[in-house]
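Hi all, long-time lurker, first post. I run a small reading group and we've been trying to get comfortable going from sequence to structure in the token notation. Rather than ask abstract questions, I figured I'd post a concrete chain and ask someone more experienced to write out its structure so we can walk through it together at our next meeting. Sequence below, copied exactly:
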Amino acid sequence: MGTLILIRHGQSQWNLENRFTGWTDVPLTEQGKSDAKETAHVLKEFHVDHAFTSKLVRAHETLSIILDELHQKVSTDFNVALNERHYGDLQGLNKAETAEKYGKEQVQLWRRSYSTRPPNGESIQDCYTRTVPYFEEHILPRVVKGETVLVVAHGNSLRPIMQYLEKLPDDTVATLEIGLCTPYIYTFEGEKMKKKEIREVPGIVTKGASVTEKTVTEGRV
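-- Answer (accepted) --
Happy to help. Here is the structure in token form:
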């Protein structure tokens, strides 16, 4: 039996400020660090054989905190293929202010259309093109061999992996909500995925919900 654990990073400073982050290297907030510790508490039955993460510090920090809390030292691969979607000219802009400037419908199209790119940025489809081949070559073979593999990445690099595993339609994956610091656990028998579990983490504060007009005081990102 192989196990794949997918986790989106904890709250970053720009999540807190409701900004488009993309490839900007922004660290976790104190709340994000606290939530990552809580996440480790629901993973204590797992011994992680190998970990993968992006090149961005908010994912590194989340992974490091989880492994420290589990008292596990794990070989880790860092790769740009697992980076968040590049938001191009929107990076650094406040989401609510951007919606006021360009209109909610346009911003929602940039964020939740599968193939529409923000100006000078990537679409979700572009993320699939760079993320899934890396997953197929480096991550999935370990799971198929029976390892427990932990991947800590970003909403728009995890969406393509979930689409691939669950054979989700483009429209479905484009609007799929992925909670911060929430483990998505896939169990395999050989090459066949047998079970999916979304594990609730008692005590985490910023679970995340991608609704542009909502405020980050509710954990919106």
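A couple of things your group might point at:
DSSP finds eight helices and six strands in the chain.
Residues 209-221 have pLDDT under 50 and may be disordered.
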